Amino acid sequence: MLTGRVSVSGRVATTEKTIPRAHWKRPSRDRVQRIRQKLADTYGLPHMPPHRRPLDELILTVLSQSTNDRNRDVAYLRLRERLPTWELVRDVPNAEVEEAIRPGGISKVKSKRIQQILTALTEHPREGHEADPFDLSWMEEASLQESRDFLCALPGVGRKTTACVLLFSYGIQDVPVDTHVGRVGTRLGLLRPGAGAEEQHDEMCELMPDGSALEFHVNLLRHGRRICDAQRPKCDQCVLARMCPARKEFQ
Ligand code: SF4
Question: Is residue 14 included in any domain, yes or no?
């Protein structure tokens, strides 16, 4: 089941303070491991087996922009019900796609983006995959860099969406850094304050222990939603308070 998973938020967090790259020191492996363990003790380990449906995941991620999980899922299911093949979604008048995904919000923008992506896949398939350009199953065996480059070349697709597709479809170790993950990671000193989306994704992949991409992503996201709120973080209830350099800013 593709729908029902915890969605990622579209905006990457920024902080007021910026630390120049030259003054930034990556956290030690030991520190990262301690944070990981605390989060796992608190939220458990996520169980989300790879579903092997990369194009579905890509479209679902487009639909998740600026809405909640429920509305995203309703929009996705309506789209699949009304237009059961991706060829149909690509070829029908835009108004039909827009109407189908209306419950997901900003449907004008999202419907155009979805059709642009499907058209781009058709016009620029991976070499050797011209017969079925919507079959992205080659990504399971391709290098992370090749799949990332391919997806990032699609209209409106960036590192966060790419990481969602690779991680949730195939368990490929790429960490989606959404607004929650970016904010919590920055407050905990895992990410450089002021880092852009590209750097945040690179850093997150660099510092996570092998095989922990899903756990890292889901537990930082849960912590951001439940405790480390953007405006009013509940530092007095936070299991990471003793190792958080940002705590003093909020107390
Ligand atoms: S101590 Fe406060 S700022 Fe730091 S991670 Fe916990 S809730 Fe967030």
Answer: no
Q: Is the CB of 13 under 6 A from ligand 1?
A: no
Q: Domain holding 100: CATH number?
A: 1.10.340.30
For residues 63 and 147, state if they share a domain.
yes
In short, whether 190's Cβ falls inside 6 Å of ligand 1 is no
Residue 63 CA to ligand 1 centre (angstroms): 30
Q: How far apart are CA 52 and CA 55, in angstroms?
A: 9
Domain shared by 202 and 165, yes or no: no
Q: What is the pTM of this model?
A: 0.91
Range of the domain at 34: 25-48+174-250
How many angstroms is it from 39 CA to the middle of ligand 1? 12
CA-based R_g, the chain, Å: 19
What is the three-class DSSP state of 88? helix
Q: What is the rounded CA–CA span in Å between residue 139 and residue 143?
A: 7
The pLDDT tens digits for 168-179 are 999 999 999 999
Nearest CA to ligand 1 atom 2: 235
Q: Ligand 1 within 6 A of 39 CB?
A: no
Of 51, 46, 72, nearest in space to 1 by CA: 51
Interval 84-115: pLDDT, tens: 999 999 999 999 999 999 999 999 999 999 99
- 241 CB near ligand 1 (under 6 Å): yes
Same domain? For 220 and 190 the reply is yes
